[in-house]
Design a protein that fits this description.
By secondary structure, the protein is an alpha+beta fold. The protein is built from 3 helices and 4 strands; from the N terminus they run ααββββα. It has one domain. 9% of the residues are buried.
């Protein structure tokens, strides 16, 4: 009996190896892109956090000038320096300018923080009128405020 020989197609050796190498290169490129994007997003997030903290600190400075009044603030607080813990990386300046008689004061608050060997800065400017009236005046409402009754009556 004669043996039948099947004709086998020519083998394509090395194709599987090339697929593995090509897949490895594509995976490496993809991981590199993902890692660089994650690193960049972490840097941007840290910078945004510093900016947000600086904005809070600027707001606090302006609020204190408003509470104490632009005339009394420099007598009670320093107009420049560093913030206390946990914001010791931040420096501040408060500039209060008297524009003229019967005009509000121009108040500018600056907050600086170190960034890559340099400084970044946040600032805000507003106008605040001088506090007039009797400084010893007791500021109590005429009627007691019923906060609980005010809000829970609306819910019932």
């Amino acid at each position: 009996m004669a043996r039948l020989h099947r004709r086998t197609p020519p083998t394509r050796r090395g194709i599987a190896l090339m697929d593995v190498i090509l897949g490895g290169v594509m995976l490496g490129i993809g991981l590199t892109v993902v890692i660089s994007l994650a690193s960049r997003s972490m840097t941007i997030q840290a910078h945004a956090q510093k900016q947000l903290t600086a904005a809070w600190l600027v707001d606090e400075l302006l609020a204190m000038v408003l509470v104490e009044g632009p005339v009394n603030y420099p007598k009670l607080y320093s107009t420049s320096g560093r913030f206390d813990f946990p914001f010791e990386d931040y420096e501040y300046d408060v500039v209060i300018e008297d524009i003229g008689l019967r005009q509000p004061f121009r108040v500018t608050a600056y907050v600086r923080w170190p960034h890559r060997g340099d400084f970044r800065q946040a600032q805000a400017q507003t106008y605040i009128a001088e506090r007039l009236g009797d400084p010893t005046q007791v500021r109590i409402p005429l009627e007691p405020i019923d906060r609980i009754g005010r809000y829970y009556d609306a819910l019932e």
